[in-house]
Design a protein that fits this description.
The radius of gyration is 41 Å and the shape is elongated. It has 422 residues and is an alpha+beta fold. It has two domains: 82 residues; 326 residues, Beta Barrel (Porin). It starts with a helix and ends with a strand. The chain has a 16-stranded antiparallel barrel with strand order 1-2-3-4-5-6-7-8-9-10-11-12-13-14-15-16.
Length: 422
């Protein structure tokens, strides 16, 4: 702009000089005068054009600067919104898990095994709608000739219906026993899970379906679920064994589902008393029409340093509706029963960090306790120690003496392990 003004002044001076020159030496003809005037007018028009172009360039520059400022501001807002959104997602999402390594030196086996590693994921969509999932790797390696498995233990949505009652739907752990829902290694004594909640209640046991749970007041709560059911084998050495009937929601047969219910009382700190039941119209999924009922009762008490657990569970299987086929009563598996009691004591020792716990457990179970009873009962006495340096890490050591009736081999020895949760 400054340059254009200078040029305009120069032109005017030139015009004045020309005028002076004309005054001193006027043109000889009118044509010459007209030519001079036209030349000066052309120069003035060119200066005006240049001045207008310069002004337009300056306006365009200002406009580009304004657009750039708007884009920069929008980018800052977008980054802030993204960061806020990511922060909100992270605040509403929970990641956790647990794992356990075992060493077994028993009559039946001598091995070391990273028994399981589980990842837990939870997400809160709203204050009343949540998602939970558990993904498990068993025995360290899955595939090939290895025994490991990758399993989806839970994946369900939970809806709060009101302050006291909720609905869950998806894949979830059934509300039965003490360990089936809460089985992190830091929460129980012994390296391995007790044999009753392995062979009678097939922990870990999950199904697909929907259910309600909530509070009833005065320390009482309830669970009621409808879900997929068992599909037990009907022939061979494992016929009608409950544990082998778990389908794990992997293309599970759905001819006959199951209904499971539980009532629990926790009206005193450190005390849980519960009873549960399940009924399934046909645990062979339409093959033999074998109905089955599970009844279970338990107590889980921790009062100061003293602890006590006790559990009783039994299955009753009906007769087959096809006399030409195998029948649970024919091999004594129309009744399958087990129970255990487990006293414990937990305390700290001197300046050693953490806590020590000692326990003893007596287990008795029989998967062939039915009408064609054979010498098939198993009795196991276990005792050991847990050490928690911090609440989320535990070291375990236990010994077991297992006496099996009949021609079953006994299974004695010791187990060691480490477990953690986060």
């Amino acid at each position: 702009m400054r340059f254009s003004v200078l040029r305009l002044l120069a032109t005017l001076l030139l015009g004045v000089a020309t005028t002076v020159t004309l005054a001193e030496a006027p043109p000889e003809t009118i044509e010459e005068l007209w030519a001079i005037i036209q030349a000066q007018q052309a120069e003035i028009e060119e200066l005006k054009r240049q001045q207008a172009a310069t002004a337009q360039q300056a306006a365009q520059a200002d406009e580009k600067a304004a657009v750039a400022d708007e884009k920069a501001e929008a980018a800052v807002v977008a980054v802030e919104e993204t960061a806020t959104s990511a922060g909100n997602w992270a605040d509403k999402t929970t990641l956790g898990g647990y794992g356990e390594l075992h060493y077994n030196n028993l009559d039946s086996k001598e091995e070391v095994d990273f028994h399981r590693f589980v990842l837990f994921l939870g997400h809160e969509f709203t204050d009343s709608i949540r998602f939970f999932a558990e993904l498990e790797l068993e025995h360290a390696v899955s595939g090939g000739d290895y025994d490991g498995e990758v399993e989806l233990e839970q994946a369900y949505i939970e809806f709060d219906l009101n302050e006291y009652h909720s609905l869950q739907t998806g894949v979830f752990l059934l509300p039965v026993g003490i360990l089936n829902e809460i089985h992190e290694p830091t929460t129980f004594y012994g390296v391995e899970r007790n044999p009753i909640e392995t062979n009678i209640i097939p922990t870990t046991w999950w199904e697909a379906g929907a259910g309600f749970h909530g509070e009833l007041g005065k320390g009482f709560s309830y669970n009621l679920t409808g879900s997929s059911g068992l599909d037990v084998r009907t022939t061979g050495s494992k016929a009608f064994l409950i544990r082998n009937g778990r389908q794990k929601v992997s293309k599970a047969k759905a001819n006959d589902g199951a209904v499971t219910g539980r009532i629990k009382w926790t009206g005193m700190p450190g005390v849980e008393l519960g009873v549960s039941a399940q009924w399934q119209k046909d645990v062979t999924q339409g093959d033999l029409g074998v109905g089955a009922t599970l009844l279970e009762a338990h107590a889980d008490i921790q009062r100061g340093p003293f602890g006590f657990r006790a559990l009783y569970a039994r299955w009753d299987l009906e007769k087959s509706n096809r006399i030409d086929e195998s029948d649970p009563a024919a091999i004594g598996r129309d009744e399958q029963v087990g129970w255990y009691i487990e006293p414990s004591y937990k305390t700290s020792i001197g300046k050693i960090p953490g806590e020590f716990g000692i326990f003893a457990r007596y287990n008795a179970w029989d998967n062939n306790a039915g009408s064609s009873r054979t010498d098939s009962e198993k009795k196991q006495l276990s005792a050991g120690i847990n050490y928690w340096p911090i609440p989320d890490v535990v070291f375990k050591l236990d010994v077991q003496q297992q006496d099996n009736d009949g021609d079953q081999k006994n299974d004695n020895g010791f187990n060691a392990g480490i477990g953690f949760q986060f």
